[in-house]
Amino acid sequence: MKSLLYTCAFVLAVTTAAPVRAADAAAPVQTMAGAYSIEQLQAALTKLGYEFEKVDINANRCSITTDHDGLKLYLNFTINVEHQSLWLWVSLANLPAADQISPVVVLNLLRENEKIRPAFFEYVPNTKQICLQRRYDNCDWTPARLRREITAFDELARSLRPLWKPETILRHTPASPEVSKSGLVRLHGTYRMVEGSVLNGVPVTAAQVADERNRVQIHGNQITMAGTSLDLTVDPSTQPARIDVTNSEGSCEIGIYKLEGDVVVIHLSRNGQPRSTDFNGTADQVSIIRLQRIAN
Question: Which listed site, 114, 155, 227, 295, has its alpha carbon 20 to 30 Å from 12?
Answer without folding.
Answer: 155
